[in-house]
């Protein structure tokens, strides 16, 4: 029984993905933090990964300002292409954009017409 457990652990250890043997160099790196709370950073690595981001406080008419962040990152995909994502994050939430992201199916015309009607119809009284 001990032999089976030992062989099982050995098999799991051998099946685990191996880490890269060489460190990946950082080709470019820049970072700046300003006294007003705004910041920016960017970097690029030797294996094709890069990212840029900047953020600043934004007056949205509330008691406290909101942080607005804009940025992008990209990395090579497994099939040899390039994955790129741009984003903005603010009081309206995180809003990513990228060609690889799924998009919703179009709403059928009959359903859209019904939704438009319901949006303009007067409320119905509750019947109890």
UniProtKB/TrEMBL annotation:
Record carries keyword Signal: yes
The keyword Cytoplasm appears for this protein: no
Gene Ontology molecular functions: structural constituent of chitin-based larval cuticle
Keyword annotations from UniProtKB, A to Z: Cuticle, Signal
Signal peptide: 1-15
GO cellular component: chitin-based extracellular matrix
PROSITE patterns, sorted: CHIT_BIND_RR_1, CHIT_BIND_RR_2
Record InterPro entries: CHIT_BIND_RR_consensus (IPR031311), Cuticle_Struct_Prot (IPR050468), Insect_cuticle (IPR000618)
PANTHER family for the chain: CUTICLE PROTEIN (PTHR10380), CUTICULAR PROTEIN 47EG-RELATED (PTHR10380:SF241)
Protein name stated in the entry: Endocuticle structural glycoprotein SgAbd-8-like
Organism: Papilio xuthus
Highest classification ranks of the organism: Eukaryota, Metazoa, Ecdysozoa, Arthropoda, Hexapoda
